[in-house]
Design goal:
The structure is a single chain. The chain has 45 helices and 13 strands. A hairpin with a 5-residue loop joins strand 1 and strand 2. The longest helix is centred in the first third of the chain and has 27 residues. By secondary structure, it is mainly alpha-helical. Strands 8-9-10-7-11 form a 5-stranded parallel sheet, with helices on both faces. The protein is 62% helix and 6% strand.
Length: 947
Amino acid sequence: MLVCKVLGATEVEADGVRLELGGPFPRRLLTALIAAQGQLVPDERLAEAVWGADAPVPAAAVLRVHVSRLRRALGNGRRELLERESLGYRLRLSPDATDAEQFARSVGEGRKLLADGDAASALRVLTEALTLWRGEPYADLPASTVVEAARGRLEELREAAVDERLAALLATGEAALAVSELGAAVQASPYRERRWALLILGLYRTGRQADALATLRRVRALLAEELGIDPGAELQELERRVLGQDPYLMLPELAEPQRQDPGRPLSSFLGREAELGSVANALAQRRLVTVVGPAGVGKTRLIVEYAAQWSGGDGPWLARLADVAQPELLAQSVADAIGLAEVTGDPRATLIRALAARPGLLMLDNCEHLVDVVAELAIELLGGCPGLRILATSREPLGVDGEAIVPLHPLRLEAEDGSDGPAVTLLLDRVRAVRAGWTPTAEESVQARQICAALDGLPLALELAAARARVLGLGEIAERLDDRFSVLGAVPRGSLTAHATLHAAIEWSVEQLPDPERALLFRLWPFEGGFSLEAAEAVRPSDASMIESMSTLVARSVVIADTTMDPTRYRLLETLRAYCREHDPDPSGAREAHARWARELVARYLGELNVPRDAHVPRMLRRELPNLRAGIRHDLTAHPEAALRTVGPLDRFWINGGHLDEGRQLLDAALRAAPDASSLHRGRASLALASLSALTGDFAAAGHHYTEAIALATASTEHDHRLLHGRVLFQSALGAIIYQAADPAMDAAERAVDVGEEVGDDWLIASGQTMLGAALVLQGRPEDGQAMLTKAAELAERGGIIWTAGCAHLFLGWAILRRESASRDPEGHALEALVALCRSLTWFQQLEDVTFSLTALNTGATAMAVAGQSAEAARLRAAVHHHSGRLGMPEDYLRRLGAMMSELPPVQALSPADQARAEADGAQLSWSAMLDLLPASTRTLSGSAEY
């Protein structure tokens, strides 16, 4: 490339190598051709430029000699640039081939950069442009009208470049340095008012207000004395502002904030209509709104979609803060985002100045790692910009007074009507995007719901799962979600998330936590189904304030709090649990702490488990059932005897909740795992296993375990063993009654009462008497049985032994129906039985005992049929069978209960059609509707609203 330098003595470079031009005459010739800027120069003008008045005659011949030398100097490939035409010569050069043109172009670029607010770049460009000057332009040419005009144009442009460079230097905040250079500049060109204005402004910004005013007086006097004029408008306005101490003089001129397109993704926006409305309503009422939610929940997408419909003023301006690692860079980053690039001085003041008179919306995305400084900036901006509104996203609130918080939760799996919720809709939509024409089968719809549940309804996780549908079926994706971070790959191009993967998004949340809260979080992942504050306190790794630590975790959207429950229930999203499980530095310690809490929970309520007095403990244990399972599974391997001690006393819990098969499996596993445990603990577990085996119809196993339990209970005469023996006898009597073995039931019940009286245990006495009364009924002595059951019920009610009271009234209703006189007055006896069964149901419901509530209802259906309410009885019995099946109770259990109702008065049969109608209706009844059928029937028959 050929470069010709004329800002000083003429020089020519070819590909970076300086060319020898052959003396002053060829140099002058070339300079004259360069100054013509590609135009044809006649021979006469060239001769005048080379020799002046001493041009040779004829000049054309001598010019040809010098042109030839120049062509040889330019070399092959460039000599043709110097062209001969009929009357003269022309030098063809590219626009950037001369330093004069490069200088002019750079000055224009610098001016534009400065006007756009990019002072630093303007300073760099203008400084580089001025370095091109080495001396007088076209120095090799003698003076002439044409040459002087060209020189004057370039020198004026240079003076302007000096002005613009000094303005850029001042705008970058280097006021002191600018003042030092401006002093010399005004001396060099004292009539350039622009330089005086810059000098005065620089003095003012360096705190030299008096010097600034003195300089104003100095330039006013100079112009008046030497030119007889007043300062121009710029200097007059500057004088007014200096005298008024205008605070904005301390700031450089700013470019206008630019409206942005936040960049909406191409994918459809689903399931967030209500949240969009919440954001709009919040911004209509408050000037600071923060969308808060966990990683991957879609906070950025929500505000971008809101921005697309924003019409309330200037903006919206979106500042993405995820990559702002240093708090001190926050204000500058926001300034960059709204188009105020390269702001100098205090960027906060600059932002306020730029936005003060502009009603608009500023969006601050991903604030969680800068909460304190974002809060401070928001307060300053809102205070200084009355028309500004701020919409932020964060994993925790900013904590500013007056802030409105819009919580963003994972997408719901189900709609209110029970149909697929927005989580499933989103997943299916994204799968269709990668599978053209795809329609899910019924099986794939089920698999989609499984994926949505496993991924907590997190939009980011669902989109990544859908992307895998290119290579995997939905069933395969669902099966592999145990290793979800491998299955869910990288975030696709065009996504709004600040992270490359779901793993990175979760990691960001965890890494931002203070050390004590992160340590606590790594102790919480073993909890399944949630946990209470008390449970979290039991596993915490340090003595830090639990309320403060949990508040931090909830505030940062790492832990979800359900305050509608009492006590408040906390949980981790499954994806976060998976991350913590994978990265916990001490996973065995976390599992051990969780298992220890589970076993201590059961041990603390051991008395209530044996003799429940209300539903508090059963309800609490049902809530903690997933945690109990996890703790027991851990202990079966790590601490088998501890697992046995935990699972053994839970027999009543397994029965009440209908978890018969699960209880059997855990009890059997615990007994196998702890063969050397104490006779007391093995005896309790064997008794529990016997009871559950009997209720599930496994008679052989029940007999075996009863025998084993008796042997273990009688291995010692200590109080706990005697009490265990009594309970074994009671359970033996109950099992015999269920299977209508009257004599064994009578024997076991009498011995249970004897043991109860011996050890002074009212529960065992009342429960034994209940079994004794039932055995009497089975023996055909319903009147004697009724008397014994009434006695047992009174003792149980007096002692607050709720389950036994319910059981006594259950068998009492059965005894009343089997009395000999029932056949003479079936309706009256049925009503008396229903009253007893309603009381039984009330007691069982107080304990939330599912199994025996169904038992009471099943018996009640028989009483209703005896009372002539055949259709209602059929509805109730169908409902009982439906819910018992739903809970996994064995069908044999209800069949045997029906067999106990034999030898009752005849009932009116329904027609097949009516029977089918009643059963179909009953199978649709909810649990609460089913519970109400029994007291409703009793109210109808008695004419009383008491039941």
